[in-house]
Specification:
about 280 residues; Uridine Diphospho-n-acetylenolpyruvylglucosamine Reductase, domain 2; Uridine Diphospho-n-acetylenolpyruvylglucosamine Reductase, domain 3; Enolase-like, domain 1; four-stranded antiparallel β-sheet
Length: about 280
């Protein structure tokens, strides 16, 4: 299909992009375009103005920022995957970026676009949530830092205001005692996840602490809090995995029923915890 009529502007800087967003009520940012353009062709999305930020090199980077790694919002998935700094300090992010879509998507899509889109079936939002990462949002009034737990507010909905843009993602440097895993099932290699589980496990002095994120198990990426609490209380992986789907509300669609998704979350969760605990 053909998109509805829209205006188009190329942003010269992040500040220019924010100014353009503030000038029009129905404006959208365009980065990689893999989510927005198909929605426009189907006329699910009808922005009056597209602000192209895809050429803003100032927001494409992976930097050491002390206790965390800073990732520019316009960093391509391929560059996130290949970043040595992430492979050393937070490998679950680089590994997951390597499984987003297909090579074409990874060469054009951006981490910021993936997070700002707010799709509950997307991979990186779940990993960011499991890591308790922080997201830096910039508007005309300056910057604010949003914890990942507060960032995703609903299906395709985030804490970013219409006149703001995501500029940076801050992921923690994981201790040497921490291991991680992201496992997903999809009908085809390039598809959205039917279900996926992110597990980050830290072992110290014979005890364990886990963060478990769930993909496509509700309106937003979710944390499996009951399973996390069980592991902190000394439960086995099998006991914790049995609790992973508690409190979730997965959809039923052409890919899987809600009940099958709950079963799959428990199976993938056990495997992810085993891999992260090995």
């Amino acid at each position: 299909m053909i998109p509805a009529t829209f205006d188009y502007e190329v942003a010269e800087s992040a500040e220019h992009a924010i100014a353009l967003l503030g000038e029009r009520e129905d404006a959208k940012l365009l980065a990689g375009g893999h989510s927005l353009l198909p929605a426009m062709k189907l006329r699910i999305a009808r922005p009056a103005l597209l602000v192209d930020v895809g050429r803003l090199g100032e927001l494409s980077y992976v930097r050491d920022a002390g206790d965390h790694v800073a990732i520019g919002a316009l960093t391509r998935h391929k560059d996130v995957r290949d970043a040595a700094l992430l492979a050393e300090h937070c490998p679950i992010v680089s590994r997951t970026a390597g499984h987003v879509g297909d090579p074409q998507v990874r060469h054009r899509g951006t981490i910021g676009g993936s997070l700002a889109h707010g799709d509950p079936a997307s991979d990186l939002p779940t990993v960011i949530l499991a890591l308790d990462a922080e997201l830096v949002v910039r508007g005309a009034g300056g910057e604010r830092v949003v914890p990942a737990r507060e960032f995703f507010t609903g299906v395709f909905s985030t804490a970013i205001a219409p006149s703001e843009m995501l500029v940076e993602v801050r992921v923690p440097k994981l201790p040497a005692s921490t291991s991680s895993s992201y496992l997903k099932m999809s009908r085809r290699a390039q598809d959205w996840a039917t279900v996926a589980v992110a597990a980050v496990v830290e072992r110290t002095n014979g005890s364990a602490k886990a963060s478990i994120g769930l993909t496509n198990m509700g309106a937003t990426p979710l944390r499996a809090t009951e399973a996390e609490q069980a592991i902190a209380g000394g439960a086995s992986i099998e006991e914790a995995a049995a609790l992973i789907s508690n409190g979730t509300d997965p959809p039923s669609d052409h890919s899987a029923s809600a009940e099958f998704r709950r079963h799959l979350a428990r199976v993938l969760g056990r495997r992810a915890l085993e891999e992260a605990s090995a």
